[in-house]
Every structure is written in structure tokens, then in C-alpha cells.
Amino acid sequence: MASIKTIGLLTSGGDAPGMNAAIRAVTRSAIFSGFKVKGIYRGYRGLVSDEVVDFRAQDVSNIMHHGGTILKTARCKEFMTAEGRQQAYDVMKKHEIDALVVIGGDGSLSGARQFASEFDVPIVGLPGTIDNDLYGTDHTIGYDTALNTIMWCVDRIRDTASSHERLFIIEVMGRNAGFLALNGAVASGAEAAIIPEISTEVDQLAELIESGFRKSKRSSIVLVAESPITGGAMGLAERVRKEYPQYDTRVTILGHLQRGGSPTAQDRILASRMGAAAIDALLEGQRNVMIGDDDEHIVYVPFSKAIRKDKPIDRDLIDILRRLSI
Ligand code: F6P
């Protein structure tokens, strides 16, 4: 492998709080180790359309406390084509970029894996997504902040739910994963979480209602993960109104609110550790791996494993929710 002198850095897919802290950590660790850094704007789109600038240590000052990403982000259709990836490679060559650090979720790392299989480019990925759905890492950058945002929102909804004695169905993000819904429900003291991971095993709504969950309560909060499998909050509310009309039901969809905001300390620390680890990985000759966090230890996870769709949820939490919602 030719030696690496210049590292290209991009953020891709849905933004996540902590991405700026990761950009700062990658840039500064790289410069500290003697590399040059090029910032690539708008994810793979900027690599295809040549939006590449030199990044100095001071270009990443005063950014780590901001949500979003200073590099901007995009979901890029051109990069899904062979021609687009060829163009991206040509732009890399033009700017003498020898290796890439990609911060993003499963779509972004799938793109990285495809690119690396076609061109001789060392790529290291950082898990940047609020969904926490990447395999091989306990946490992804942005997940903790989104979880705290959900908790903050549910605390407020609880006030009105309790005053009106209503059943609130609150939809949270997660794409096809239930980490935000399940952990958000435990953190906010909700009565239940309806998640795609167990939707085929049990009728979660029927189980909830039949458990007599409101025996000792007059208002209730249920978190539902957005997903065609759960039916989302709208689908669930329609079912409740039809099958259990005795409940005065309301729906709140938290939506993109969950993607913004200043990252928590946990996300800033995770992003800083992972950003530094990405440069260590390149120095060690690693390629095509995602940086993971396994019980507070940095691990290298091959892209093929990271993008598996079956990261397990913590089933004990489902039981804890049931026990605590009586
Ligand atoms: O992957 C992050 C995420 O926020 C998912 O939770 C959600 O399904 C999706 O992105 C929304 O994407 P967009 O911002 O393109 O609507």
C-alpha cells in the first residue's frame, strides 16, 4: 500500500449531533500525526462534484458544541452508479487524497464498502447516526443526544397527557431499529415501546392493553419506532381508536427535532475518541473498517459486519419496561 500523506474527510447521510466533534477530532489528530487533511463538502456528492478544500487545525475551532455538520451532508444518487464512483476517484486523485474518513450511517458505510471494493482506497468509517443501528459498536455518534432530546420532549408531553388523562402515542426515529424507542421509553418512564425488532413475535399493542397497563394510572405514554413494521404512530392510533375507543388518544411525531441540538458530553467524548482512533487505524494500516466502541474499548469492525441489519436490542429492557409500567 502506498504511504498515506493526505486524508479526505466527509460526512454523509442523515446528520447527527457530534459529527462536528468528530470532524474536529479527525482533522486535529491527522494534522498532529503529520497528515494533510482535505474537507469534502456534502458527502459523496462533493467528492463526485469536486467540493474539496484544505482543512487546517484552526478550521475546526469552536465547532464541537454545535449540532449538524460544518461539512454539510447529503444522500448521493450519483455515487450509487459506477460512473459516479469513477468520477469520485478521479477527484480524489486530482487532490492527491490517499485515504478517506467517512462519518455516517449504514448507507454511507455501504457506499464506502462498495467504493473500496472497486478502487485501491483505504477507508475508515465513523458511526455517525442517531439510530444506533450499526453492528459492532455499543453506541453511535449522535444517539445519546437524540435519546436525551426524546426524554426532554416526553417529559413535556407527560404534563399535558396527565392533565387531560390521555393516551399519547409518540413516534420516534430509528429507521428500522428500535433503540431510540426502547431506550427513550425507559428513560422517560413511558408505559411501553413498540419496536420493529419484536413486532413479528407479539402483538405489542394488544399485549399492552390486555396487561391492564392503566390500572393504577389515568394517562399513558407509548413510544413507537417509525417503521412500516410497527405502522408508526398514525397506524397505531388508528388501531387504538378502532379497537379500544375508550381511550382518548393523541399522536405526536417528534421527527427531525431529534436530529438537532448541541451534542451531549457523552457524544462529544465518543466522537473525540473515535475521531482519534480513525487516524490510529490508518497509521496501523487498517482499511475498510468502522471504528466501534465495545464496552469502552475501541474496536475495528469490518464494513461488511457493521452494516448487518440485525444489531440486537437489549431484551432485558423490554422486561424492565413491563415491570415498571404497572
Ligand atoms: O438515519 C437517520 C434518520 O434520521 C432516520 O432515523 C430517519 O428515518 C431518516 O434519517 C430520515 O431521513 P431524512 O432526513 O432524509 O428525511
Short description:
Helices cover 40% and strands 18% of the residues. It is an alpha/beta fold and 326 residues long. It is elongated, with a radius of gyration of 21 Å.
Description:
- It contains eleven helices and eleven strands.
- With 326 residues, the protein is an alpha/beta fold.
- A seven-stranded mixed β-sheet has the order 3-2-1-4-5-10-11, sandwiched between helices. Strands 7-8-6-9 form a four-stranded parallel β-sheet, sandwiched between helices.
- Strand 1, helix 1 and strand 2 form a beta-alpha-beta unit.
- Helix 6 runs parallel beside helix 11.
- The N and C termini lie far apart (60 Å).
- The model has no long low-confidence stretch (mean pLDDT 95).
- Bound molecules: 6-O-phosphono-beta-D-fructofuranose.
- 6-O-phosphono-beta-D-fructofuranose binds next to loops.
- 6-O-phosphono-beta-D-fructofuranose (F6P) binds next to loops.
Radius of gyration: 21 Å
* Count of DSSP-assigned helices: 11
| Fold-level CATH name of the largest domain | Rossmann fold
Low-confidence stretches: none
CATH domain class name of the largest domain = Alpha Beta
Structural class: alpha/beta
Order of helices and strands: EHEHEHEHEHEHEHEHEHEEHH
Describe the sheet with the most strands: 7 strands, mixed
Q: What molecules are bound to this protein?
A: 6-O-phosphono-beta-D-fructofuranose
**What is the residue-mean pLDDT, rounded to a whole number?**
95
CATH architecture of the largest domain: 3-Layer(aba) Sandwich
Helix content: 25-40%
User: Which band does the percent of strand residues land in?
Assistant: 15-25%
Distance between the termini: 60 Å
Largest sheet: spatial strand order:
3-2-1-4-5-10-11
Overall outline: elongated
Number of strands: 11
> How many domains make up the coordinates?
2
